[in-house]
């Protein structure tokens, strides 16, 4: 039997999973690490924490599996996108990584738009200048931390820093690089025009590969630390959403998925480049060679529920510990008791600004309609419904662009919630299914590694062999009609509050 490893570098933890070639989990391990917010709207993490988490979890899965290390044929890495990792000439980290949800770079986005031109930027990078993307972070460091910028010799994305640790190779791949705002997305290569206009040296960036291509092998010193073989190939891998797409079988036209992790995504596969000229959704290269994906992103999906749980659900947390349950299982039970509409209470999930469809770093979370009749459970349901409405915003734009969505899969931590899945089915008006595999991104990059290692002939074949679809929720028409009434009110709130968000930010 041959085996594959997928590493999923998330915002809250890194998880490493060892699979056999049929997609069965043999061993897994995870390590958490902190997120730092030095100022309101800022978000940073230490790449050294990612490194230690990756090495520790790799060692654990190899040791606990008791399999021959030479039978581990390939390794793929998935990761949170857009983060800026800066290394000096020795390959050491210069400063904490500025990660995907950081919102400090509004002025830099204006500068990028001015330098490249709004329409031209979208033509090349398939996206408008966004605070979450890497290019604006590079300009921010150059402007505000010139000493750090002067030391920089290598710019990497989070998962590609782990690749460097494992292989000593500076490399990235098309799906993750698409989110840097420096890639020519239609042509799948760095854009010399954008780099020249932004005055970013090409030599700072790594070589770009396709997701299934072999980028390097495990270094001898890493093999000694982890128990891996130096013969294990490391492939390009993928950004978290492209990896999740492979891990849920979204590798051909007509298929889409929704993920509710820290952020929320509605993602559809496309065999051709489809770009929204208004920049409301992202078009990126996907992990299938020669294909792309279109996705809408809401910044504060699972983050909203976690924020509310951490700050207002001490009783449920204590109950979960006492009963040895997942606290979200208790939350789901309580939310199920609250009728649709949460007692006429709406929530806008803009804790970290918003991407789709508003492209507004200044907007913030709102409870609308709060009254003395509401309690904690009303607010919990309102949070889940508000996130569902934000995902409906994303879905509507994809349909408007002509994307055909015949089947919707759901994944991520929020995808485990039967309440949330039913909300999405009712709002989308389609079946919402899951796969039996629970490790979407990790399995996705393991499948990519399987292609690179020659175990599968293609990504599609790997998905056929490693995935099993589980039928999920069917839309309920009576629920759908009621949700859509609330959704219309939800949609009207942002335009009414837009200027007030800006005024609040300027205080």
What is the molecular shape?
globular
Poorly predicted residue ranges: none
Largest sheet: 7 strands, mixed
First-residue to last-residue Cα separation: 62 Å
Give the integer mean of the pLDDT values: 95
Oligomer: single chain
Work out the radius of gyration: 22 Å
Query: What is the number of beta strands?
Result: 24
With helices defined by DSSP (H or I, 4 residues minimum), what is the helix count? 18
Percentage of residues assigned to helices: 40-55%
What structural class should be given to the helix and strand makeup? alpha/beta
Strand content: 15-25%
Question: How does this model look, in words?
Answer:
- It is built from 18 helices and 24 strands.
- With 507 residues, it is of the alpha/beta class.
- The chain is globular and about 65 Å long.
- Helix 10 crosses helix 16 and helix 11 runs antiparallel to helix 14.
- Strands 1, 2, 3, 5, 13, 14 and 15 form a seven-stranded mixed beta sheet that branches.
- The model has no long low-confidence stretch (mean pLDDT 95).
- The longest helix is centred in the last third of the chain and has 30 residues.
- The termini are far apart.
Give the arrangement of secondary structure elements.
Blueprint: E1 3-9, E2 13-20, E3 25-32, E4 44-45, H1 47-65, E5 72-79, E6 85-87, E7 97-98, H2 106-116, H3 118-125, H4 134-144, H5 146-151, E8 154-156, H6 158-167, E9 171-173, H7 174-177, E10 183-184, E11 189-190, H8 192-198, E12 207-209, E13 214-217, H9 220-226, E14 233-235, E15 238-239, H10 240-247, E16 255-260, E17 264-270, E18 282-285, E19 292-298, H11 302-312, H12 314-323, H13 327-335, E20 346-348, E21 366-368, H14 376-400, E22 407-411, H15 418-428, E23 432-435, H16 440-452, H17 459-466, E24 469-473, H18 477-506
Parallel strand pairs: 1-5, 5-14, 5-15, 9-12, 16-22, 22-23
Antiparallel strand pairs: 1-2, 2-3, 4-7, 6-8, 10-11, 13-14, 16-17, 17-19, 18-19, 20-21, 23-24
Helix pairs in contact: 1-6, 2-3, 2-4, 10-16, 11-12, 11-14, 12-13, 14-15, 15-18, 16-17
């Amino acid at each position: 039997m041959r085996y594959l490893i997928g590493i999923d570098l998330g915002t809250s933890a890194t998880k490493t999973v060892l699979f056999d070639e049929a997609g069965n989990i043999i061993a897994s391990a995870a390590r958490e690490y902190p997120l730092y917010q030095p100022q309101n709207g800022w978000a940073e993490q230490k790449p050294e924490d990612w490194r230690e988490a990756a090495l520790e979890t790799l060692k654990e899965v190899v040791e606990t599996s008791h399999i021959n290390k030479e039978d581990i044929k390939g390794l793929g890495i998935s990761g949170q996108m857009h983060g800026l990792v800066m290394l000096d000439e020795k390959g050491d980290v210069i400063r904490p990584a500025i990660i995907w949800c950081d919102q400090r770079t509004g002025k830099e986005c204006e500068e990028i738009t001015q330098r490249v031109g709004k329409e031209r930027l979208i033509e090349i990078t398939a996206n408008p200048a966004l605070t979450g993307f890497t290019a604006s972070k590079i300009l921010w460091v150059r402007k505000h931390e010139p000493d750090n910028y002067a030391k920089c010799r290598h710019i990497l994305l989070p998962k590609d820093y782990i690749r460097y640790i494992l292989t000593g190779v500076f490399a990235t791949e098309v799906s993750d690089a698409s989110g840097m705002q420096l890639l020519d997305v239609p042509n799948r290569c760095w854009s010399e025009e954008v780099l020249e206009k932004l005055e970013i040296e090409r030599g700072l960036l790594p070589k770009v590969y396709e997701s299934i291509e072999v980028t390097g092998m495990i270094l001898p010193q890493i093999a000694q630390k982890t128990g891996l073989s130096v013969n294990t190939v490391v492939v390009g891998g993928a950004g978290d959403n492209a990896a999740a797409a492979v891990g849920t079988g979204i590798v051909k036209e007509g298929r889409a998925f929704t993920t509710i992790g820290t952020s929320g995504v509605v993602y559809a596969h496309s065999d051709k480049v489809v770009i929204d000229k208004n920049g409301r959704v992202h078009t990126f290269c996907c992990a299938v060679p020669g294909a792309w994906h279109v996705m809408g992103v809401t910044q504060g999906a699972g983050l909203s529920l976690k924020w509310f749980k951490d700050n207002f659900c001490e009783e449920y947390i204590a109950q979960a510990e006492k009963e040895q349950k997942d606290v979200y299982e208790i939350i789901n039970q309580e939310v199920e008791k609250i009728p649709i509409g949460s007692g006429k209470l709406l929530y806008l999930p803009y804790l970290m600004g918003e991407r789709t469809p508003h492209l507004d770093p200044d907007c913030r979370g709102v409870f609308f309609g709060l009254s003395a009749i509401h309690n904690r459970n009303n607010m919990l349901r309102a949070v889940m419904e508000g996130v569902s409405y934000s995902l409906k915003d994303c879905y509507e734009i994809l349909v408007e662009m002509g994307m055909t969505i015949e089947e919707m899969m759901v994944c991520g931590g929020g995808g485990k919630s039967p309440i949330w899945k039913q909300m999405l089915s009712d709002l989308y008006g389609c079946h919402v299914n899951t796969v039996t595999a629970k490790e979407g991104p990790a399995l996705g990059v393991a499948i990519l590694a399987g292609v690179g290692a020659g175990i599968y002939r293609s990504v599609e074949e790997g998905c056929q062999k490693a995935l099993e679809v589980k039928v999920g929720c069917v839309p309920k028409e009576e629920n759908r009609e009621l949700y859509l009434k609330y959704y219309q009110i939800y949609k009207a709130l942002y335009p009414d509050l837009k200027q007030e968000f800006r005024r609040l930010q300027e205080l």
